[in-house]
Amino acid sequence: MKPASADDVLGAIAACRSITTPTWIDTDALEEQGWYTAEVRGERRRTRKVRGIYESRNNRAYVVATRDELRSRECAIQARLESTSNYVPLLQQVSQTLGMPTGQDGFAYTWDLDGLAMRVEPTGERSAPSARFVLTALPLVGTDDILSAVRACIPAIGAEGFGDRALAEDGWAQDAAATAAVPEERETKLFRSGETAALVSSGKDRGVTSVCRVSGRIEDEATAENLRSALTGLYGTPSAKGDDLIWTHDGRSLRLVTYERDGATGPIAFHIPVSYVGESE
Predict the structure, then answer these.
(1) Are the C-beta atoms of residues 167 and 152 closer than 8 Å to each other?
(2) CA distances in angstroms from 5 to 58, 79, 117, 139, listed in the order given
């Protein structure tokens, strides 16, 4: 990787902004903008494609949308730095176009980009430093908002699948623009409420089971633990499946999925798909 300029980073940010929605990262649209699956040269000068990494001619930054980013609804940019001392000057140049950061946490900085949140922090080794920019459309939400959205989802999913009437009765309305941005084959509708920042969407869990899904980002691990405790207080002791926790209530399954990465800092993306499993005898 060669060092990326501020213009390179801004070009990659523009690409990420155009494909990032609360329910989907539209990587198919990258090719239309001149971004293609990256290639690396291996033994005997042979090249191989690196799935989830995208490059563009005359741009030294990379767009990253691997399986991890897709699951957490993030679009990332990896930019090589000449040295660690180039980190802050790069951000200063980026700020001339995007405006000043809205927050700082140590060496990490955040921006609010018209409904998208962007966080950047230094990564890599001292001998090969880089900056990682991460964009997401998922809102930052608190425990009370999440619980309110979960309570709305429970009656919206039943033996016949998802029904939005129960959501409407609870004050949730479909976000037509965001829903239209999702590929039709994903069968996803996005809903918002003026009473909570959490997002609710319909869809398929793992492509099979109809769900009412609550999504967002939580501040940190302490908030995640508080959420786990609150769900347990409401719905009893959960079972575990891998890193996921599953509660059963009133014929529904509530599965808490958090996307915590080793070495990563900042907010944690989460999803709570609520599905119908039938009444227990």
Answers:
(1) yes
(2) 11, 8, 22, 29
- Domains, the chain: 6-136 (no CATH), 143-276 (3.30.310)
* Token pair recorded at residue 12: 């990659």
Encode the chain (281 residues) as per-residue pLDDT tens digits: 789 999 999 999 999 999 999 988 999 999 999 999 998 876 666 778 899 999 999 999 999 999 999 999 999 999 999 999 999 999 999 999 999 999 999 999 999 999 899 999 999 998 999 999 999 999 999 999 999 999 999 999 999 999 999 999 999 999 998 888 777 777 799 999 999 999 999 988 766 689 999 999 999 999 999 999 999 999 999 999 999 999 999 999 999 999 987 766 789 999 999 999 987 54
Q: Which positions ≥6 away from 22 have C-beta within 8 Å?
A: 73, 137, 138, 139, 178, 190, 199, 201, 215
Find out whether 211 and 220 touch, Cβ atoms under 8 Å: no
Is 104 in contact with 93 (CB distance < 8 Å)? no
pTM given for the model: 0.88
**Per-residue tokens: 228:** 């786990």
Alpha carbon distance 140, 134 (integer Å): 14
User: Other C-beta atoms within 10 Å of 135: how many?
Assistant: 25
Tokens 């425990």, residue located: 143
What do you get for the CA distance between the two ends of the chain, in Å?
A: 60
- Locate all alpha helices (DSSP H) within the chain, ordered by sequence: 6-19, 28-32, 67-71, 87-98, 143-153, 165-169, 176-180, 221-235
Cross-strand bridge partners of residue 77? 63, 133
User: How far is it, in rounded angstroms, from Cα 178 to Cα 23?
Assistant: 8
Q: Which two three-digit tokens encode residue 48? A: 């191989």
Could you tell me which residues are beta bridge partners of residue 196?
Answer: 193
Which residue bears the tokens 């039709």?
Answer: 184
